């Protein structure tokens, strides 16, 4: 199967399974799983932060960070389409008593500074929630958020005494695409959540990085949220392996996405909206969505065009250059018959 639905679908490679099987483990809730401790200290060092904490999911890592920065009745500024706001079940409000203040995105995925400024509530007035945090996302829908914008947003946050969190689920894609060090991208942020279960190919796992104090608070919330794991070195070993072997190769995913976009641009019947890092966005006419998805599926190409509107195709570790050519040929064949 050539699965273009998401970069979460990657399977652990035989070598990754090998290091998982061999990982020394302890009880991580007691703080003595050596493989988890090693991953945490290596990710912290690579991100240029004091400390790190291993989580079962990015959703939980983001939520623990929001709860570490904000208390009951506080507020965070976040993109209208940001994962932490829209795709995490409303966790900040549901479990954190933290009010989100969504902001409309600009076309490049950034949150315009004037809109952010206008949404920050006056201090000390009991009418308002206390604005405490700005949360950004990079990459956002595949787009690398310009570092110059991030610096400006960070200056605004500092001026208003807001903390700054990054949902960096795909921050390694941003680093590879922009040729920057991870630490460089993470520098302006007080906390960054990094996923290992997307294009990096680990089966499970996210890591939150930040100051020692922030990570201590997040450790408490992780326990409360049910994320304290025991012999989790087995999972951390997969992430450690991914960081050593699957970061630089993200460039192949980006090249494959570009090849996919260029191939699909030659197909009459659909239009390519945009390609950024490992994502290609295409418009499939509503009348073809179901039939194209079914046809491709029977030919071993999985895509999710069933909702109509714009469909996202994602490249990753388990999609080769040859697979891209097969996928393009399959879409071409469909429209030739339709
Ligand atoms: C996948 C993802 C997350 C975390 O999702 P989990 O499935 O909980 O690991 C967070 N933010 C973004 C942008 C993501 O794509």
From TrEMBL:
One of its GO terms (molecular function) is L-allo-threonine aldolase activity. GO terms for cellular component: cytosol. Pfam families: Beta_elim_lyase. Residues 1-27 are annotated as: Disordered. The modification N6-(pyridoxal phosphate)lysine is found at residue 198. InterPro entries: ArAA_b-elim_lyase/Thr_aldolase, Low_specificity_L-TA-like, PyrdxlP-dep_Trfase, PyrdxlP-dep_Trfase_major, PyrdxlP-dep_Trfase_small. Residues 3-284 form the Aromatic amino acid beta-eliminating lyase/threonine aldolase domain. Gene3D superfamilies: Aspartate Aminotransferase, domain 1 (3.90.1150.10), Type I PLP-dependent aspartate aminotransferase-like (Major domain) (3.40.640.10). GO terms for biological process: glycine biosynthetic process; L-threonine catabolic process. Keywords: Lyase, Pyridoxal phosphate. Its cofactor is pyridoxal 5'-phosphate. Belongs to the threonine aldolase family. Homotetramer. PANTHER family: L-THREONINE ALDOLASE, L-THREONINE ALDOLASE-RELATED. This is Low-specificity L-threonine aldolase. The lineage of its organism: Bacteria, Pseudomonadati, Pseudomonadota, Betaproteobacteria, Burkholderiales.
């Amino acid at each position: 199967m050539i699965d273009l639905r998401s970069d979460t679908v990657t399977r652990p490679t035989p070598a990754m399974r090998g290091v998982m099987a061999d990982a020394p483990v302890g009880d991580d809730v007691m703080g003595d799983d050596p493989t988890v401790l090693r991953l945490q200290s290596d990710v912290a060092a690579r991100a240029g932060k004091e400390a790190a904490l291993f989580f079962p999911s990015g959703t939980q890592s983001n939520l623990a960070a929001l709860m570490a920065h904000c208390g009951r009745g506080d507020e965070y500024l976040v993109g209208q389409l940001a994962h932490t706001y829209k795709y995490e079940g409303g966790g900040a409000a549901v479990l954190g008593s933290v009010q989100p203040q969504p902001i409309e995105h600009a076309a490049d995925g950034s949150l315009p500074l004037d809109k952010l400024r206008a949404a920050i509530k006056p201090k000390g007035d009991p009418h308002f929630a206390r604005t405490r945090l700005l949360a950004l996302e990079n990459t956002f829908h595949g787009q690398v958020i310009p570092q110059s914008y991030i610096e400006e947003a960070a200056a605004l946050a500092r001026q208003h005494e807001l903390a700054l969190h990054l949902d960096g689920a795909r921050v390694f894609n941003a680093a590879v695409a922009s040729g920057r060090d991870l630490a460089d991208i993470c520098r302006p942020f007080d906390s960054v959540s990094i996923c290992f279960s997307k294009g990096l190919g680990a089966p499970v796992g996210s890591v939150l990085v930040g100051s020692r104090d922030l990570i201590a608070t997040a450790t408490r919330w992780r326990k409360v949220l049910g994320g304290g794991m025991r012999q989790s070195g087995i999972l951390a070993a997969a992430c450690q392996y991914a960081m050593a072997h699957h970061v630089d190769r993200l460039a192949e995913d980006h090249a494959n996405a570009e090849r996919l976009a260029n191939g699909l641009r030659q197909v009459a019947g659909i239009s390519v909206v945009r390609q950024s890092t490992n994502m290609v966005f295409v418009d499939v006419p509503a009348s073809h969505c179901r039939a194209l998805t079914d046809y491709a599926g029977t030919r071993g190409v999985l895509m999710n065009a069933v909702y109509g509107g714009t469909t996202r195709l994602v490249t990753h570790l388990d999609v080769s250059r040859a697979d891209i050519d097969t996928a393009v040929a399959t879409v071409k064949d469909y429209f030739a018959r339709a």
